[in-house]
Write a structure and sequence with these properties.
Elements: H1 2-75
Amino acid sequence: MPGCTCICTQVNGELKNLLVAAVGEDLETRVHLLTEDKLQLARALLNSAKHLSTHQEQIEWLAGQCEVWRSKFLASR
Protein backbone atom coordinates (compact mmCIF):
# COMPACT_ATOMS: atom_id res chain seq x y z
CA MET A 1 0.00 0.00 0.00
CA PRO A 2 2.76 2.55 0.67
CA GLY A 3 3.81 2.27 -2.99
CA CYS A 4 0.26 2.97 -4.14
CA THR A 5 0.11 6.12 -2.02
CA CYS A 6 3.35 7.34 -3.53
CA ILE A 7 2.08 6.70 -7.07
CA CYS A 8 -1.25 8.41 -6.29
CA THR A 9 0.59 11.43 -4.92
CA GLN A 10 2.79 11.58 -8.02
CA VAL A 11 -0.24 11.24 -10.33
CA ASN A 12 -2.13 13.92 -8.41
CA GLY A 13 0.86 16.24 -8.68
CA GLU A 14 1.09 15.68 -12.43
CA LEU A 15 -2.66 16.25 -12.81
CA LYS A 16 -2.36 19.52 -10.89
CA ASN A 17 0.48 20.62 -13.18
CA LEU A 18 -1.60 19.76 -16.27
CA LEU A 19 -4.60 21.62 -14.86
CA VAL A 20 -2.52 24.71 -14.12
CA ALA A 21 -1.05 24.60 -17.63
CA ALA A 22 -4.49 24.18 -19.20
CA VAL A 23 -5.94 27.07 -17.18
CA GLY A 24 -2.94 29.23 -18.10
CA GLU A 25 -3.38 28.45 -21.79
CA ASP A 26 -7.12 29.15 -21.52
CA LEU A 27 -6.45 32.54 -19.90
CA GLU A 28 -3.82 33.33 -22.51
CA THR A 29 -6.29 32.46 -25.27
CA ARG A 30 -9.02 34.58 -23.69
CA VAL A 31 -6.67 37.56 -23.29
CA HIS A 32 -5.60 37.18 -26.93
CA LEU A 33 -9.22 37.08 -28.12
CA LEU A 34 -10.15 40.08 -25.99
CA THR A 35 -7.18 41.99 -27.39
CA GLU A 36 -8.27 41.17 -30.94
CA ASP A 37 -11.84 42.26 -30.13
CA LYS A 38 -10.55 45.53 -28.68
CA LEU A 39 -8.48 46.17 -31.81
CA GLN A 40 -11.46 45.43 -34.06
CA LEU A 41 -13.68 47.78 -32.03
CA ALA A 42 -11.04 50.52 -32.16
CA ARG A 43 -10.87 50.19 -35.95
CA ALA A 44 -14.67 50.31 -36.19
CA LEU A 45 -14.74 53.40 -33.97
CA LEU A 46 -12.15 55.17 -36.13
CA ASN A 47 -14.09 54.24 -39.26
CA SER A 48 -17.32 55.59 -37.74
CA ALA A 49 -15.58 58.81 -36.72
CA LYS A 50 -14.30 59.22 -40.29
CA HIS A 51 -17.82 58.75 -41.68
CA LEU A 52 -19.25 61.23 -39.17
CA SER A 53 -16.63 63.78 -40.17
CA THR A 54 -17.49 63.30 -43.84
CA HIS A 55 -21.19 63.66 -43.11
CA GLN A 56 -20.56 66.81 -41.09
CA GLU A 57 -18.68 68.33 -44.04
CA GLN A 58 -21.55 67.44 -46.37
CA ILE A 59 -24.09 69.00 -44.00
CA GLU A 60 -22.06 72.20 -43.83
CA TRP A 61 -21.78 72.33 -47.65
CA LEU A 62 -25.52 71.76 -48.06
CA ALA A 63 -26.29 74.46 -45.49
CA GLY A 64 -24.17 76.86 -47.54
CA GLN A 65 -26.00 75.87 -50.72
CA CYS A 66 -29.33 76.45 -48.99
CA GLU A 67 -28.24 79.96 -48.06
CA VAL A 68 -27.13 80.65 -51.65
CA TRP A 69 -30.44 79.50 -53.11
CA ARG A 70 -32.40 81.31 -50.41
CA SER A 71 -30.56 84.54 -51.22
CA LYS A 72 -31.19 84.05 -54.95
CA PHE A 73 -34.86 83.41 -54.30
CA LEU A 74 -35.25 86.47 -52.09
CA ALA A 75 -33.34 88.63 -54.60
CA SER A 76 -35.63 87.54 -57.43
CA ARG A 77 -38.77 88.74 -55.67
